[in-house]
């Protein structure tokens, strides 16, 4: 019988289900060393957010086939290392959506009516009716930052309560926002106009400290902010200061930059602040949903069947997967790249299969391209199962074309993404067994190995420009791993792609854009 380790508290419904096909050991509160010591015995690991599945844990896990996260965020799993070792990572992208949305709404109403303080006051024998006079949410403006699954449900309920809705989501179409009764606006406008702001976006390098002293400074002094998304999206020091100075009226947080929160200055604020211990997903229903969802996937993988919500390896028959894997990885990488170049609100994606690939089943490749395209916006919430639905919900039209006559490589994929103002296109191929290459960017021929941190420029082909960019990067201590230039004609336009050892520090991009001859510069981060 296969062995499953459950290392965080999981609803019994999931454990019972797994018990039918495996030996299940529940061992919570393991130290990192204890986990590394016992993990070699196990075929599957089931976790919530408590267990850190680090590179060291995965390297020690010689039998492991699957890691199941009973929840959405897989921030506590080293997914790239798991993928490298062929370990499937699954999550439950929707099991706790309603729970998290309802928690945000509960916090909004609690802030409006001072429920936690009023409760404490009555329990202390007081009767302070005037002190706890509240405000109504009816006809107030709610700004929703991140209009995905949770944000959409919050918007739907808030609309039914008579609230006016603004939303900011750089990856969502106007049409989808309108369906939800939201006016899609820029972030500054949302901060200036909202009476309540609720955050429902992922934590990424771009969203870290999205709410900071400057953005808080734009809010009304009567405004209230709620964060049930991820800690670190709000700068906690700046929030404390904004509350103390009366810059904003109140805040409610469920998530923190570091958890558990411990004795933070936020706990000692006199002002209106409600703090809950990451309870967004903690309802009986959500815990049953996520436990059963993930346990079913672990069971299926242990029985040799595909998983339905794999964040890293798609649910295909092993023989099909083996054949298509390099091309799916290529499509996902190209999707990610073209999405970053097109910059957000994509209206359509053209997937063109060329050469030998033209006669293949295109569906897995299209899905992989969409997963890559949507991953800057949705991160681990987009997988091979929901990528098509997510794209449709976002109003992205997908067109497939085939051209068997293109013979530069045995098989190649071209993706063209149409944004609001322009269409960007990238092509890639597989060299040898599984080496990925980007072979064309916006019709400029190039030969680039995709890497994690890249800088891409479109510039005038003239002497000195490459040297200047190299010096700029050097002055910021950024090391260049490789460089490729592509051009269509001498002294015309050119593209340059630099692979970097480290992420680009803030401010470098604007310096590079200022170099004479540079028309555009992009930071591209590929997974
Ligand atoms: N407190 C808790 O216990 C729970 C927290 N969460 C967190 O809630 C958040 C939302 O989850 P879901 O709605 O399921 O995710 P989702 O993926 O369905 O929606 C996220 C939305 O954020 C948008 N987005 C991405 N970058 C953005 C940016 N820079 N600015 C504005 N919007 C941006 C995306 O386009 C997407 O529409 C996540 O951070 C998730 O980890 C989820 C479940 C429970
Ligand atoms: O309670 C948990 O497991 C955390 C829920 C959460 O934040 C998530 O699913 O992303």
UniProtKB/TrEMBL annotation:
The residues forming the signal peptide are none
Q: Which Gene3D superfamilies match?
A: 3.30.70.260, D-3-phosphoglycerate dehydrogenase, domain 3 (3.30.1330.90), NAD(P)-binding Rossmann-like Domain (3.40.50.720)
Assigned EC number: 1.1.1.95
Q: Report if keyword Oxidoreductase is assigned.
A: yes
Q: Matching Pfam families, A to Z? A: 2-Hacid_dh, 2-Hacid_dh_C, PGDH_inter
Q: Name one GO biological process term.
A: L-serine biosynthetic process
> Which EC class is this protein assigned?
oxidoreductase
Question: Per the record's keyword annotation, is Hydrolase included, yes or no?
Answer: no
Q: In which pathway does it act?
A: Amino-acid biosynthesis; L-serine biosynthesis; L-serine from 3-phospho-D-glycerate: step 1/3
- Span of domain ACT: 454-527
Any one GO MF term held by the record is: NAD binding
Q: Which InterPro entries match?
A: ACT-like_dom_sf (IPR045865), ACT_dom (IPR002912), ASB_dom_sf (IPR029009), D-2-hydroxyacid_DH (IPR050857), D-isomer_2_OHA_DH_cat_dom (IPR006139), D-isomer_DH_CS (IPR029753), D-isomer_DH_CS1 (IPR029752), D-isomer_DH_NAD-bd (IPR006140)
User: Source organism's superkingdom?
Assistant: Bacteria
CDD domains per record: ACT_3PGDH-xct (cd04902), PGDH_4 (cd12173)
According to UniProt, the reaction catalysed is:
(R)-2-hydroxyglutarate + NAD(+) = 2-oxoglutarate + NADH + H(+); (2R)-3-phosphoglycerate + NAD(+) = 3-phosphooxypyruvate + NADH + H(+)
Which UniProt keywords are present, listed alphabetically? Amino-acid biosynthesis, NAD, Oxidoreductase, Serine biosynthesis
Which PANTHER family does the entry link to? D-ISOMER SPECIFIC 2-HYDROXYACID DEHYDROGENASE FAMILY PROTEIN (AFU_ORTHOLOGUE AFUA_6G10090)
What's the family? Belongs to the D-isomer specific 2-hydroxyacid dehydrogenase family.
Function recorded in the entry = Catalyzes the reversible oxidation of 3-phospho-D-glycerate to 3-phosphonooxypyruvate, the first step of the phosphorylated L-serine biosynthesis pathway. Also catalyzes the reversible oxidation of 2-hydroxyglutarate to 2-oxoglutarate.
What is the protein name given in its UniProt record?
Answer: D-3-phosphoglycerate dehydrogenase
Identify the species of origin: Acaryochloris marina (strain MBIC 11017)
Q: What is the lineage of its organism?
A: Bacteria, Bacillati, Cyanobacteriota, Cyanophyceae, Acaryochloridales
């Amino acid at each position: 019988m296969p062995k499953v380790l459950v290392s965080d508290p999981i609803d019994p419904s999931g454990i019972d289900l797994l018990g039918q096909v495996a030996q299940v050991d529940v061992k919570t509160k393991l130290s990192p060393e204890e986990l590394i010591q016992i993990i070699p015995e196990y075929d599957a690991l089931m976790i919530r957010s408590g267990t850190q599945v680090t590179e060291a844990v995965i390297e020690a896990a010689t039998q492991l086939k699957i890691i199941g996260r009973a929840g959405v965020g897989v921030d506590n799993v080293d997914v790239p290392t798991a993928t490298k070792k062929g370990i499937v990572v699954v999550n439950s992208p929707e099991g706790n959506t309603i729970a998290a949305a309802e928690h945000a709404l509960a916090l909004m109403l609690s802030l409006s009516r001072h429920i936690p303080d009023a409760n404490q006051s009555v329990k202390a024998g007081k009767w302070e009716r005037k002190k706890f006079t509240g405000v109504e949410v009816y006809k107030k403006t709610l700004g929703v930052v991140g209009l995905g699954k949770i944000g959409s449900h919050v918007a739907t309920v808030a609309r039914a309560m008579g609230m006016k809705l603004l939303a900011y989501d750089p990856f969502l179409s106007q049409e989808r926002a309108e369906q939800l009764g939201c006016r899609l606006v820029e972030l500054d406008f949302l901060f200036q106009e909202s009476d309540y702001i609720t955050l429902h976006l992922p934590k990424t390098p771009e969203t870290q400290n999205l709410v900071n002293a400057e953005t808080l400074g734009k809010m009304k002094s009567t405004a209230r902010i709620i964060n049930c998304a991820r800690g670190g999206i709000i700068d906690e020091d700046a929030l404390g200061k904004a509350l103390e100075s009366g810059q904003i009226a109140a805040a409610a947080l469920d998530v923190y930059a570091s958890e558990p929160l411990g004795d933070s200055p936020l706990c000692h604020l006199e002002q209106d602040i409600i703090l809950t211990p990451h309870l967004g997903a903690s309802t009986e229903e959500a815990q049953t949903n996520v436990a059963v969802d993930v346990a079913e996937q672990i069971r299926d993988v242990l029985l040799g069947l595909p998983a339905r919500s794999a964040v890293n390896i798609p649910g295909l028959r092993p023989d099909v997967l083996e054949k298509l894997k390099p091309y799916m990885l290529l499509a996902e990488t190209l999707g990610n790249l073209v999405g970053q170049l097109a910059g957000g609100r994509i209206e359509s994606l053209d997937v063109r299969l060329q050469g030998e690939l033209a006669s293949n089943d295109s569906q897995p490749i299209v899905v992989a391209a969409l997963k890559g395209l949507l991953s800057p916006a949705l991160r681990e919430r987009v997988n091979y199962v929901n990528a098509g639905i997510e794209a449709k919900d976002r109003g992205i039209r997908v067109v497939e074309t085939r051209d068997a006559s293109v013979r530069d490589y045995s098989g190649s994929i071209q993706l063209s993404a149409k944004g609001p103002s322009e269409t960007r296109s990238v092509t890639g191929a597989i060299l040898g067994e599984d080496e990925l290459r980007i072979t064309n960017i916006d019709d400029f021929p190039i030969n680039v190995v995709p890497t994690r941190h890249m800088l891409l420029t479109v510039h005038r082909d003239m002497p000195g420009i490459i040297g200047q960019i190299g010096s700029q990067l050097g002055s910021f201590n950024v090391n260049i791993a490789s460089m490729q230039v592509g051009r269509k004609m001498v002294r015309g336009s050119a593209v340059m792609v630099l692979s970097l050892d480290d992420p680009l520090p803030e401010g470098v991009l604007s310096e590079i854009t200022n170099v004479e001859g540079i028309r555009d510069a992009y930071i591209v981060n590929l997974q």
